[in-house]
Each structure stands twice: as C-alpha cells, then as structure tokens.
Design brief:
Blueprint (H helix, E strand, L loop, with lengths): L1 H19 L5 E3 L2 E4 L2 E5 L4 E4 L6 E2 L9 E5 L6 E2 L12 E4 L5 E2 L12 E4 L5 E2 L12 E4 L5 E2 L12 E4 L6 E4 L2 E4 L4 E4 L8 E4 L5 E2 L12 E4 L6 E4 L2 E4 L4 E4 L8 E3 L6 E2 L12 E3 L6 E2 L12 E4 L5 E2 L11 E4 L5 E2 L12 E3 L6 E2 L20 E2 L12 E4 L5 E2 L12 E4 L5 E2 L12 E3 L6 E2 L11 E4 L6 E2 L10 E5 L6 E2 L5 E3 L8 E3 L4 E4 L8 H4 L3 H4 L2 E4 L2 H27 L5 H9 L5 H4 L9 H14 L18 H8 L17 H14 L25 H9 L18 H15 L1
Parallel strand pairs: 3-5, 4-6, 5-7, 7-9, 8-10, 9-11, 11-13, 12-14, 17-19, 18-20, 23-25, 24-26, 25-27, 28-30, 29-31, 30-32, 31-33, 33-34, 34-36, 35-37, 37-39, 38-40, 40-42, 41-43, 42-44, 43-47, 47-48
Antiparallel strand pairs: 1-2, 2-3, 15-16, 16-17, 21-22, 22-23, 45-46
Amino acid sequence: MLIRRKGLAMLIAIALLMLSLPLPVHADGDFEISDGILVKYNGNGGTVTIPTGVTSIGNYAFEESTITQITFPSSLQVIGDYAFDRCQSLSSISIPNSVDQIGESAFMACINLKKVTMGDKVKSVGKYAFAYCESLEKIPLGKSLENIGDDAFLSCISLKEITASPDNKTFTSVGGILFNKDKSKILFYPNAKTESSYTIPNYVKSLGATAFNYCNNLSELAVSNNNPYFSSINGVLYNKAKTELIRYPLGKYGYEYVIPSKVTKIDDSAFENCTDLEKITIPKSVILIGNMSFMNTTRLESITIPDKVTAIGDRCFGQSGLKKAIIGKDMVIIHNGAFVNCMHLESITLGDSIKSIGDDAFGGSGIKYIALPSKLETIGAHAFESCSGLKSIFIPDSVMSIGDFAFSYCVNLESVTIGNGITHLNKFVFGQCTKLSKIILGNHLESIGIDAFEKCKLKGAIILPKSVKSIEKLAFFDNFDLESLVVPDNVTSIGEDAFHGGDPNSMTSFVCPLPNLIVTCTDNSFVHSYPEVFPGDNTKDLKYKIVSESEIGKLLDEGEQNAQEQIDQAYIQTYASSSAKEDLQNALKIGLKTESLARDNYKKNVNREEFCGIIMKLYDLLGCKGIVNKDNPFTDTQNTETIRAYSAGIIGSGKLFNPNGTLTREQLCVILASAIEKTGKSLNKSLNYQKSYKDIKKVSSWAKDQVRILNGYKVLNITGENIDPQGNVTKEEVLVTLYKAYKVFM
C-alpha cells in the first residue's frame, strides 16, 4: 500500500512538472503556433489564410510582412498588439464576428490598407490600432464595440467616414463623424472630409483630445448659437467665455495669429500641425499651455512664453520650426519632450525659476548653448540627447539628479562642469560624446554609473573627488586618450571593464586596459586589487602608480580645490554680465565671496541677509576681524553675520531686520560707507559725483553724502545717465562694488 502511494505521488509530481514546462511551438508551414496562439509568420507574403483553430494572433506576429490579403478563421478571438504593424502591402481586411479584441497598433502604418470590415463582436480597439493607415477611406464600427483607444485612427489622411451600428450602445455617428452615444462629445472628425467649415452642434459639451487633428480641409470651426459650451472667433474654436483656446483649424489661411488678451489657457494640440503659421503671439494673460499645443508647427520660428506660465506640456513644441525661444520667469517645469527634435532651435532663454527639465525635453534639438537655471533640481532621461550643437555644459550645484542618457550622443560636446549637488552619474549620461575631453566633477559625487563616459575623448589627468565610492562597469570605456586617473581609497566597488576599451588593433575587438592610462592609488586601495576581482588577460596589463596615503591626500585636496575654482568660474561665465566678469573673478581670488552670492545667478537681486554676509567678508579683508558680539536685537533672524554687522556698528538695531528684503542702491552706499569707517579708514568727504546724473535729486537726504562720496571714489561706478538710487541692486553689482572698495581702501 505504501509503495502504491509513493508511485501515485511520483506520477502526480511528474504531471505537475510537465504542466510547468513551456508549451511547445509547432511549426505549421509558414506559421509558428503555440496553444492556439499564432506566434510568428515566416511566409513569403501575398495571400495568406490563417489555419483553423488559431484563437489569437500574437504580438508582432506579422510585423512588416509582405502579405497582400489575409483570411481569418472563425476560431479567432484576439488580434495582438502590433500584429500587422507596417504590413504595407495589405489592402483589405475582414475581421470575423468571433474577434472581440484588436490590440494596440495592430494595423498601424498599413499604408495601402483601403478597406476594413469589422465584426459585430469586437468590444475593444486598442490605441493606434489603425494609425497612419493613409489609404483607409471608411471604417464601420460594430454593435458590440465599447472602447476605442487613444489615436486609434491617427493620421488616417484618406478617411472620409466612420459609421457606427445603430445598435451600438457606446458610439454613434452623424455625417460620418464619430460621437459618443448621447452625442455630447465629438470623438473623431475624419481627416479627409471635404467640407471647409464645420459647426459644433448645440448638444456637444466636449471634444476628444485629437478630434480635429490632421483635418487639413477645415478652415473654420463655427459654433451653433445655442451651444452653451463653445464659441468661435474668426473660425478659431474657444470655450464659451473665450478664455480657453481649444483649436485653430489646420486649413485656416494666414501666416500670423495673435491670441486674444483674454485667453488664460491654450489647450492640448490647439495649434498642432498648423504648418502654415510663422508667428504666434501669446498674451501675458496665459497661465497654462497644454500638451502638444504647438507640436509640428514647422514654420514657427520664434516664441515668447509669458511670465505667468508655470509649466510647458509634454511635446508642446516638439518637431516645430523654432529657432529662438524665450521662457518667462515663473516657469517651474519643462515637461517631457517639450522641445524634442526642434532641429533649428539654436537659442533658448530659460527663466531662473525652472526646477525640472523633463525626459527628452530638448533631445535632438539644435541648441548650441544653454544656461541651465541656477535653481534647477532635476534633468530627465535623454533630456539633451543628440544635441549635436552643444559644445559645453555647466550643471549648477542645485541639480541633484541627471537621468540616463541625458547628454549622450552630443557629438560636439567638449567640456562639462558638474556642480556639488550630483551624487550619482547615471547610465550612459555622457556616453558617445566623442569630443568630450574635459570634465570637472563636484565634491559630493559618490558613484559613476554604467557607461557614464563611454567612448568619450577624455584627456590628460582626472582626479576623482574624495567622495567617490563606486565606479560601475564600462564607466570610462574606450577613452583612449586618458593618461592619468587618481582614485581615492574610498572607492570600494569597481565594475568590469571600467578602465578598458576595445583593442583597435584586434580583429575581434578584444577588450584591454586603456593603453595610455596610469591609475594613481595607494597600495592598500580597492582599485589596486581590481585585477584580482576580475582576473584575466583584459585586466592584467592595467598600469599603476602607487603613492603613500599622504601623497594621494595631497593630490585629492589639490583636485578638489581646482574643481571648486572651476565651478566658481562656471557660475561667473554662465550667470554674470560680460562687464562684471573680470571684477567678479578678482573678487573671488581675494576671498571676497559667500556661497549664496558666488553660487547663484549673479543677476538676481541681493537680499539684506546676503549683503550682511558679504559686507562682513570685506570688513575682515580690510583687517578688522575681532568683534565682540552683542545680544541679537532682531526677532526675525539668527544669522551670525547679521549679528556681527550689528555688533560692529555697521547696521542699526531694531526688532525686525527683514532678512529676505531687497537692498536699494542708496542703502548699499550707506552701509558700505559705514563698514569702511568702522575699519578705521577715513572717507574723503569733499569728493563729488563723477558727472551730473539726471536723477541726483532723487537720492534720499539720509544717503546723499555716502552716494556722492562713493561715486567720487568710483566705487559706485555708474555708467549710464541715472543713479537710480531706489533701484534694487543685484548680486554682481554688490560684489563688484565691494571689490572696488577693497582696491581703494586696502
């Protein structure tokens, strides 16, 4: 009995094992079929009949085949995703009543497909199912259809009519136009309808996202007088209140359009494919710009986005003809693909409030230079991929994340400076930047990702920051000009072939250490044992220079100091006015700087607390470091430098200091004059203005002497006709003014 039970148990185990094994794929002539699923068609095209018993056509089964006609069996229930994608010889299809599901992109880009018959049991048509079927003229929808995916009939440029079965409970059609059942929503207006004008009926409440896309014959979208939801201005569709621009007709004549000043929102796809428009003026009232709003406006050459707009939608200007773009100061987010493939875009001005640049935002664009905002936090994946015009890029300290492939294939990129915010360089972030020869790395970098610098042109010596702990595989692959890499002891993980390349003299591209590279490290460092971690011919020839801990410490300190100086210079070159750059560089050399001033946009206004910090730097440089701090009189700040300035008598007391308040030019002069005198220096009070400024009388009585004296010293060096005493001063003006004061009074 026990033996029988054991035997039965074994049989059950074998049966379960067999069930767990993958089902075999049977080759039946031209078809690979598995458990009723037609997995792959291997035939030569032409007329094809699918075998009886097939219940499902698998994803990609007939992709790009040369079939001309196809007969489906009555057993078929599902047509999978991309099943007949780009079958460009297919001319007609008849989908049997047994089919209830047509997958995503199932017949996409079947450019010669003219006729479709759809069975009554089809319940779902996936997104892009018949997209780009350029010859398709008519589509009948059966009574069971419940769901049509987004853009199912996108760019069917010959489509004149969609009909829905009268018994369909979800959809209906009127004049070949597709509506939902109660006709409150227009879902799709056939691209090839010949009428030049269409009137939105009074019962329509809403439109499908791409209802009128590719309707090149439509020059006017009118609205029934009794419609409470829409209005029309000269053929352009708006909401009833005329605050929302919904759709500009593709066939409307004209090369310029001025959006009315009442508009606050530009809808998704509002101007998409308007290929005749060369100029569009967006009013200051606009707050929101939707997805794909200006996509494929191929003649549009410039755009100015107003200050109130806080975000640009996905692919907003993608594939447009833009050459120049100016983005307003309140913009926070540039969404995915916003300027993707704008091949003519050479100049773009970004507002300083932008915190996020999305995936593919500028990918494939023609930009030659871009100043990333000084408060930017994230750069998305592929954000600047294939921007072949870029030669240099500076990533400020504020950036904390750079996505995979963000700057990959920027084939003319020569130098990169990365600020202190980045801790990880992602996969292939600068991969295939084949002219990239110089990199500056910030002092918080902890890991260098897979292929981060693959096939770059890195030259000379690179000193990795002390903070680096991990170098992932292929990180510096194929950098044949790299001669020296100083690796800190903190590195405890190195991936395979991190310092290698394909041997150019080998027919089999044998991977070997970079021929010119010498790795500088200590004897006990992880990198020195790297060949033991990956033993073999491709690591044994790696060359080392072994130094002491004190020597490598000195090298790393020098490298960090140099990197920080380079980052400071990058801030000046990126964010300062040309006229101020030399003085700013000199100010930094003498130590006249604070991080809030030297690591920010120099053209931004300085606040009162920042000014106290830098005025005390000047005070110290002029030889007066010893101050006995008094009790803090202010209730709205605990800032050490502000208390020092009060204790030194440079600023007065009061309950409120207003640390974030701005500073006027005359206030700057009064506080600066006070600081100079508190160091024991004397001011020549007989000095007069350099010239007769037009607005001298506007200087407040309490500041007249200080403004006059400092202008006489050429410390307050005004180049124009006005002093603008009540005007706010910028960070660069403060630094330049204080540097001039240092030169005079040191």
